């Protein structure tokens, strides 16, 4: 019986070749491993590390990603272990500084992978794109399913993120988001589905894809960020309060007034193309009289909001700025960084054109 089973297994091996799982999980020989690029993983938490309510350590997470060590030598460190929405703005600043230090100090490090929850992942990614000035890539990754789900997309996403961080083609592109085998630019990516595995999309399309043979890019962003950013997290100790308020039918202006009275230095108003509703116009005049900078961003999902005074801008308080085609939540991040440098509105409008 035992001999029969043995013969059967031998036959199976001859027919199918080595089981692919066996080949894939084999560690590369020591010399080959030394030749691999080095990637640093910085873990912040999120669903990707959330097994049955117990969050995984970075080392445990790496062990769940099949054959990840065939693509890079990975050092992993824990920055935080929380859901994305629980990260504070102070932690964002610390994270940007930490990543800049890793990329600057370790000449061998090809890039950094940051694991994150997906809820606010696009915000963290854009913040890092604006504050980590390096040619080396920063790749933000998460998962839509936890490690103990029937299908854990985090394992494949993590391997893909490491491949992107290790790829020479990723140089000079700033911060990227890798989910579901796709590569997105931090500026244009948005979570567009609360549940599905293909939850992330970019306005204007993805930058590239992580295919079986190679990491392949189709296009490059025209906007500044990454190596071309003018912002420097190392010079910042805090970010000013900027609030996002939504325009909808009959929207009351007292919410805008409350934001300013509670210390908001900037207001992003999410409109269609700049027009407000209810008593918001009057409240925006109040905000500007208190020296708050007001930026209008589109809530439509596409298209630009142009500055007041320019052709095409409707119903706006003179002096409000236009966020171009940035989403309201990303406009808030750029405005926080702009105001942290105490720049004047004309210069802030320039930033909205360039970033
Ligand atoms: N609640 C989680 C978070 O953003 C969701 C996720 O990770 O996908 O941390």
Structural summary, described in words:
With 355 residues, the chain is of the alpha/beta class. It contains eleven helices and 16 strands. It has helices at residues 2-16, 20-25, 30-35, 58-63, 89-105, 121-131, 153-166, 254-261, 280-289, 328-340, 345-354, and strands at residues 38-45, 50-51, 54-55, 73-82, 109-115, 138-141, 175-179, 182-185, 189-191, 200-202, 208-210, 215-217, 242-246, 266-271, 293-298, 321-322. Strands 4-1-5-6-7-8-11-12 form an eight-stranded mixed beta sheet, sandwiched between helices. Strands 13-14-15-16 form a four-stranded parallel beta sheet, with helices on both faces. Strands 2-3 form a two-stranded antiparallel ribbon. The longest helix is centred in the N-terminal third of the chain and has 17 residues, at 89-105. The protein is elongated. Aspartic acid (ASP) is lined by residues 46-47, 83-85, 117-119, 142.
Name a few traits of the molecule.
Rossmann fold; binds aspartic acid; alpha/beta; four-stranded parallel beta sheet; single chain; 11 helices; 355 residues; 16 strands; eight-stranded mixed beta sheet; 2 domains
């Amino acid at each position: 019986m035992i001999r029969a089973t043995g013969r059967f297994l031998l036959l199976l091996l001859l027919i199918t070749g080595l089981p692919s799982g066996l080949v894939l999980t084999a560690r590369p020989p020591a010399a080959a491993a030394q030749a691999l690029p080095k990637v640093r993983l910085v873990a912040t938490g999120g669903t990707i590390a959330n097994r049955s309510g117990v969050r995984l350590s970075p080392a445990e997470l790496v062990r769940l990603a099949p054959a990840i060590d065939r693509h890079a030598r990975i050092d992993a460190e824990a920055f935080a272990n929380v859901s994305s929405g629980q990260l504070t703005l102070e932690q964002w600043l610390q994270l940007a500084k930490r990543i800049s230090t890793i990329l600057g100090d370790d000449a061998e490090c090809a890039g950094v992978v940051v694991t994150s929850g997906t809820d606010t992942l696009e915000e963290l990614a854009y913040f890092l794109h604006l504050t980590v000035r390096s040619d080396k890539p920063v790749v933000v990754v998460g998962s839509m399913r936890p490690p103990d789900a029937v299908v854990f997309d985090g394992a494949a996403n993590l391997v893909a993120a490491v491949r992107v961080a290790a790829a020479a083609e990723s140089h000079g592109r700033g911060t990227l988001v890798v989910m579901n085998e796709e590569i997105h630019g931090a500026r244009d990516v948005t979570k567009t589905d609360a549940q599905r595995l293909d939850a992330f999309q970019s306005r204007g399309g993805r930058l590239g894809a992580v295919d079986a043979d190679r990491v392949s890019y189709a296009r490059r962003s025209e906007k500044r960020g990454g190596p071309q950013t003018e912002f420097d997290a190392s010079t910042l100790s805090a970010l000013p309060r900027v609030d996002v308020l939504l325009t909808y039918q009959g929207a009351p202006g007292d919410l805008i007034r409350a934001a300013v009275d509670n210390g908001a230095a900037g207001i992003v108003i999410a409109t269609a193309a700049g027009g407000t509703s209810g008593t918001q116009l009057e409240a925006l005049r109040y905000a500007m009289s208190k020296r708050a900078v007001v930026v209008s961003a589109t809530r439509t999902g596409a298209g630009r909001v142009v500055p007041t005074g320019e052709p095409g801008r409707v119903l706006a308080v003179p002096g409000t700025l236009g966020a171009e085609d940035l989403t309201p939540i990303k406009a808030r991040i750029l405005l926080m960084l702009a105001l942290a440098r105490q720049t004047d509105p004309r210069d802030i409008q320039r930033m909205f054109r360039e970033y």
